[in-house]
Design a protein that fits this description.
This protein has 10 helices and 9 strands. It has a single domain (about 5-195), classed as Spore Coat Polysaccharide Biosynthesis Protein SpsA, Chain A. It has a 7-stranded mixed sheet with strand order 5-4-1-6-8-7-9, with helices on both faces. Strands 2-3 form a two-stranded antiparallel ribbon. It is α/β, with parallel strands linked by helices. It is globular. The protein has helices spanning about 30-40, 60-65, 80-90, 105-120, 150-160, 165-170, 170-175, 205-215, 220-230, 235-245; strands at about 5-10, 25, 30, 45-50, 70-75, 95-100, 125-130, 145-150, 185. α2 links the parallel β4 and β5 (about 70-75).
Length: about 250
């Protein structure tokens, strides 16, 4: 079976919510909470935390190592190069890209997409979950985005004269170029409410995530989260307002 790695991009220096990885959910940091969830995903060979070489991200590396996970430290601006180098070092043939500010990612969704990618038998370069209208979840604030790609696709990107934007955001050049890459978008088997926002980009996001963490029972399935939000429509309304202000 092709060696498969989850690569988590994480850094301390977020502009709108600095040090968000170290905010606390119960007795864990946000980063610890997410990494513990990812460790529960079956059939993954490696989990690699890809952070920067900046001193501020020493604590990111320390957390990952304390949880017996791999760490790769690279360029602070060229996030794509971090993914490429980490995949090289750990000989990852299939790469699952995860953003560390999406704390309620569903393990079942990661498993589903990895299996779909494997079942394609090497035909695909890139697979991502998407809304029914085809919008990749990575372009939304849902906090449920999962992207799966081949190491070969990452290697091909190395040879292209990519913009600073594409190097920072890793995958847009892939999903925006169906003439160059074999793409597939897959709708999740669960309903995503129109204004759902589970990413953590601003302080209000963390307030909502903290409420869900406190009031919803583990394992924080999307069904239970949605049920909770239906009982608390003021949170969905606030999420919609944030989405309008901060389009991801």
């Amino acid at each position: 079976m092709a060696r498969t790695a989850i690569i988590v991009q994480a850094r301390a220096g977020a502009t709108r919510l600095p040090n968000k990885m170290f905010l606390r959910l119960g007795d864990q940091t946000v980063l610890e909470f997410l990494l513990a969830r990812l460790k529960g995903v079956d059939d993954i060979d490696d989990i690699i935390v890809a952070t920067t070489e900046l001193p501020a991200d020493e604590a990111i590396a320390d957390i990952a190592e304390s949880m017996n996970l791999h760490v790769f430290r690279g360029d602070s601006a060229d996030v794509l190069s971090r993914f490429q180098q980490a995949a090289d070092i750990y000989e990852s043939e299939i790469v699952v890209r995860i953003c560390a500010d999406n704390v309620f990612l569903q393990g079942s969704e990661i498993r589903r997409l990895v299996q779909e990618f494997r079942d394609a038998g090497g035909v695909l370069d890139y697979l991502a979950n998407a809304l029914p209208d085809g919008t990749p979840l990575i372009r939304t604030g849902t906090g449920l985005a999962v992207e799966v790609m081949s190491k070969q696709a990452l290697e091909r990107l190395k040879a292209l004269p990519l913009s600073t934007f594409h190097c920072e955001h890793v995958t847009p050049f892939l999903y925006q170029n169906p003439d160059l890459f074999k793409l597939r978008f897959s709708v999740p088997p669960f309903e995503i409410p129109k204004d759902l926002r589970l990413t953590m980009d601003v302080s209000e996001d963390f307030d909502h995530i903290s409420s869900i963490y406190r009031d919803v029972d583990p394992p924080y399935s999307i069904a239970e989260i949605v049920k909770y939000l239906e009982k608390h429509p003021h949170i969905i309304k606030a999420m919609a307002e944030i989405n309008n202000r901060h389009r991801k």
